[in-house]
């Protein structure tokens, strides 16, 4: 008996001071990288931590920087556990995103949203928000009506200062010109950059630059400040900027669909913001915690308050339907403008297309290449990178 | 007309001019020498600098290669050609590389395609890519196992497609990814081209001259070629053979670099020279001041001497020569001063003597007139008096006056002889006692008249006979006693004779007025009496004591005087006279006795009738036969006719003077005694007469005793 008692005491002490147990008593952590420009997820993650006891370490980057940082550390697989990224990033094979089980998805998602979360037919992310498309903001205190024909406006406006906020070297803005003439940048998995429509889009885009109504050197934050302070009449920006602009301009802020360029309607891309798991994170030990995070972000409660807290359109169909029911003109305008968008392709090659368009456009505007050479160049580098991408995938 | 130049200024000018000339020559020589060295120096320096620059350039390029070589396997850069998603990082990497690497001007990546993968600055994207693609394709096709960074010189013309003679230097760094394959350890993805920026190299060496790099006929961009052909150093940095690229360094140093050095050196020399000139000028000014100040002091001293201030200068001169000059001037001044002092003394003496002579003449006039008046008066009175007794007294007075006059004339004659040093002392037996007695007799009457005693003491005279000149001895005694009697109004005049061997002492002591001390000092000077009042009171020529002094000295003796005013005086004459035996008395008497000349023919040549009568009267007692000729011619005639025993010849005669008569007589006859009778008895006259042939001389006025003595001497 005493030997049994001693054994029990020993076992109890072992349990109390066991280092495994000691580790297990520490709160679990999840590293999540997000893009800064879009939404502030901090309150949601705090709520999640409070609810689940899982600590969320947030790594915030600019969108472009986020992509580069992830790629840079991809080789060593020193990547965060989860990322909230535009859906097109899912095509970056170097990041080795985990295939998400269908069971993890909410049943309330529309098929359009689900399809937008797949890469080559594989579900690579959990859609949280949908939209992210560009709209035309204007200051009612300065101008009564939105621009309907940007080409005419550019040709006719004689202003001593820029009147339109346009984030010129951001290809998300450029692609509206390309989409106006060419609905698909990728056809059957093949990039379509060396096309007549692309050459015309580039020429039109240069016309916009030369018109003087925009200041290409004033980039995102600069444009935000100018529009907020009434120095710009119009501002083309994503729906994610609505909250900030509304807070500043109040009722002077008005929203309109993107204008036409001549006979062609400028078309924005719309995409999801997905919760994805690089370096095959779902297969890691943190999978249960990640599942908890997915469930939390897709929960009805969170989806319902995405607009109120983040001014993001929810991926959840029910939540979106509820928003439509609201008597909010701006919100209705934002949701309505979704119809004037093309879904953003999530193929891996899309990531190269963005870079190729930027490099091509920069070289063209810098006088390095003619418009024909530019599209040839863009096509060349995308193709070359795509080939290497394929090789690496095969390897 | 000569300029008024200063020696010191002249020296100063000359030294400055010489130094300036020396400086100019020195500068010219140094400049010439430096110019000669310039060419050699230029060549050597360019060569050495060029070699140094090549080493430097190579070192810098090698350092750059070492620095950028790791980029060859840079993950981002090597991946970029095959994955454009690395664009942002690649741009950042290229930007950092260009901005932070001194010798990299631009960087771009070529993957062998017609498009430049990426580049910075943006201009590199505009460049013609074909040149670099060619090299990139070559590298990609070679698949080298070892890393080799090539150097390329690419013409700007082919890069920018515009005419240019310039080129750019590139480093071509192969970009590769490491594979696990043994056969192909690397995958070459492209080439990173770095445009070498020459500015740091040129900037750090710009002071070394104009540097430009050439490759064949092309000049590397950033370097400034020169058209100069001289002084250009050219040497290969890289050769096609070893480095697969031809690159030469050319260096040209501007001649100014050397000229400036030379000019600077010459300027330094000139500057130093000018400083030396200034220093020299300053020193010369100082030296001039050091020289001129004492010279001016000497000049002032000379000026004082010129004005007659013969004082000594006592300046403390720095230079020995000037001190010597000052001493000489001082000695000169002293000598002049002494001479002036002496001359002034002589002048005073001369003036005094002049005054004494004037006084003497005045006295003499008085003294001569006094006896003449007596003589003239006597003869006037005798013309009217018939009384014999009265006549006798008058004659006696006339005689006295005549003797006084004669004495005066004798004094003058003697003094003249003494002054001329022509007075010869005779040496014959003299009875001193007798002489004193005779002289006493001359003054007895005078002393008696003044009621003073004239006392002679000869008791202490042991040897009265001496060899001497009785005439001069009498003259001494006569003068002393005459003075004593003259200046003594009462009391006595005592003459004491003493002897001791050859020494004979004659003391004349009176109780007269005495002589003051001042007068005593010049008592024996000629023409001097105690004072002018003495002359007025007592008369006299003032020659007496001077003659006494001269005569005493001629007899190896001396005369001294002691006197007290109001008490009297004592004159002492000490003579050195040999003692001799007493002479025979008869001889002495015969000579002054009337000679017996009966039947003797005497001839007298005399033109003056009065003198003829006097002479006839004096000769009459001798009973001689006297014939008188009226002039010289007659005298010669009568001489031939009479053949006289003695021929008396006056010197000054009409028709033929006595001298001529004498010479004519002596031409024919050497024996006939010729006696000159003349008033020309001044110094030298008697000697002349004797030289001409006269045997003796009788002075006018004729002393009858003297005349008889002469005749007795001739006859005997």
Detail the topology: elements first, then pairings:
The complex is a heterodimer of chains A (395) and B (716).
Chain A (H helix, E strand, L loop, with lengths): L1 H16 L1 H6 L4 E7 L6 H11 L2 E7 L1 H10 L9 E5 L24 H5 L2 E2 L2 E2 L2 E6 L2 E6 L10 H7 L7 E2 L5 H11 L4 E2 L2 E2 L4 H16 L8 H9 L5 E5 L3 H8 L3 E4 L3 E2 L2 E2 L2 E9 L10 H12 L1 H5 L1 H5 L6 H9 L3 H9 L3 E3 L4 H18 L5 H24 L1
Parallel strand pairs in A: 1-2, 1-3, 8-11, 15-16
Antiparallel strand pairs in A: 3-15, 4-5, 6-15, 7-11, 7-12, 9-10, 13-14
Helix pairs in contact in A: 6-8, 7-8, 8-17, 16-17
Chain B lengths: L6 H62 L6 H5 L7 H14 L3 E7 L5 E5 L9 H13 L7 E6 H5 L5 E13 L7 E11 L2 H6 L5 E6 L2 E3 L11 E7 L1 H4 L3 E6 L2 H52 L13 H65 L3 H33 L7 E4 H19 L2 E5 L7 E4 L1 H18 L4 E9 L2 E8 L6 H5 L10 H7 L5 H11 L3 E7 L3 E9 L1 E2 L5 H7 L9 E5 L3 H11 L5 E5 L2 H11 L3 E5 L7 H11 L5 E5 L6 H8 L3 E4 L4 H12 L1
Parallel strand pairs in B: 4-7, 11-13, 18-19, 18-20, 20-21, 21-22
Antiparallel strand pairs in B: 1-2, 1-5, 3-4, 4-5, 6-7, 6-9, 8-9, 10-12, 12-17, 13-14, 14-16, 15-16
Pfam families (chain A): SBP_bac_8 (PF13416)
Protein name (chain A): Extracellular solute-binding protein
Keywords (chain A): Signal, Transport
